[in-house]
Amino acid sequence: MSLQTLAGLDRKHWQAVAGAARARIETRLFIDGRFVDAADGGRFVTVNPATGEPLAEMSAGTAVDIDRAVAVARHTFKSGIWSRVAPRQRMEILYRFAALVERDAESLAVLETLAMGKPIADVVGGDLPAVIDTIRYMAECIDKIEGAVTSTESGVMHMVLREPLGVVGAISPWNYPLLMAAWKVAPALAAGNTVVLKPAEQAPLSCLRLAELFVEAGGPPGVFNVVNGLGEVAGKALALHGDVAKITFTGSTEVGKLILQYAGQSNMKQVSLECGGKSPQVFVADVADLDRAVTAAYRGIFSNMGEVCNAGSRLLVDRAICDRFVERFIELGRDAFRPGDPLDPATSMGPLVTREAQQRVLGLIEAGRREGARLQFGGGVPPGMDAGAYVCPTLFTEVRNDMMIARQEIFGPVASVISFNGIEQAIEIANDTIYGLAAGVWTRDIDTAFRLVRGIEAGVIWINCFDEGDMTQPFGGYKQSGHARDKCFDSIKSYTQTKSAWFRLS
Ligand code: NAD
User: What gap in Å lies between CA 349 and CA 413, rounded to an integer?
Assistant: First the structure.
């Protein structure tokens, strides 16, 4: 069924698909092209956050399983059946891989929704098309990776070759389970590496299916392996492993710092980090269309339940338009995202990923109240929805940038309005954070826009829009948001290393 057809299906249909999918959930590890149990038989339970009911008992990989997966990946890399084949051959397999993801979009979508509560309409309309795009784009890049022959004196030829790294360990988060895995795995595979993926324990289901589809597409067994397990067990073992050439990590800043330590404690493997954010959106008084800006503001923080690394959680609003901005935000944004059953295509807001995440977000909302921010709407659990991990869309105003809600990455649907007086102050507040992932700028004046773009410390800045982009756009942060750049052509190059070959000719 095409993605377009899927977008037109109703709740009854998705409930039936979910019922069938639950009965067939694969829970084991995927190593060397086969599903296998964890060596010590350990298991952990994933829970459907919309209902609080257990979803599946997953095999819990440990260091032994990581060892086994890395050994297979290393052997497969050295065999050359993936790393040394003609680029076209890898391209064809990745194109088939993308087509199979599209073919199985329905079952993949439902796994995503069951595991982490993302509204099915968002998975079908957003995540899956982006996953398919990612795999296709990286396939297209494969035969565009070039080395160089540099200028030298006669009697010398100097070539710079680009080679894959070896075994890449990928550690991914749960907020876009398939997409974040694809941003890592697709360029790593495209560049000729083999991969061991450790998906987030909250939502590993779709990643197991992804690896199976790679093999169905003709990918050699052992090239793409998946080891489920807990972060501090399986993730740590992967990051400490001496035969892993690079760890590509997306997750919290806290764990990102541990990954750097593990690399130093082991083999100095390369590390690329995509971490947290506390992104500002700056609304200057001359904004051309206030309602359009306000709409982007509430969408930028309430979509995906606010569980977005680049969520526009700090709304910096010019004092001259602050009252009007807040008024319109309440009018337009209060009911725009209604918590509901994520399997219902009409639902725009599902539960948070776990009960613990819900409690953490509610705790931060309480801290906002305590510190004197003004709660304009939301702030609690939607009535009658206690079984799931729901939190209402929430707006705080009169927030100061030193309050906890302005400093911590809440990772929930909580917006904070902070007013500013003049562009210099806006830049100062925007940069007063450990993070630097993304920002939005709203003004009709090109000079002001440029001043803000140059002044704000962030890896991605949107001007008069928010959270847009395509595969050509480098995505990644400044400061403690990490230093990797996903999505773009540079991303595939970051899974290669250069080798200089200096020939003395006789
Ligand atoms: P997390 O850091 O808790 O977990 C991320 C991954 O790391 C998971 O697979 C987890 O099992 C693993 N992990 C946990 N402890 C580990 C350890 N000691 N050693 C090795 N691996 C370990 O993050 P999360 O809660 O899954 O995801 C949310 C975070 O991810 C947020 O901070 C968000 O901003 C960030 N994120 C960033 C981007 C980006 O592109 N910058 C994208 C999505 C999410």
Answer: 9
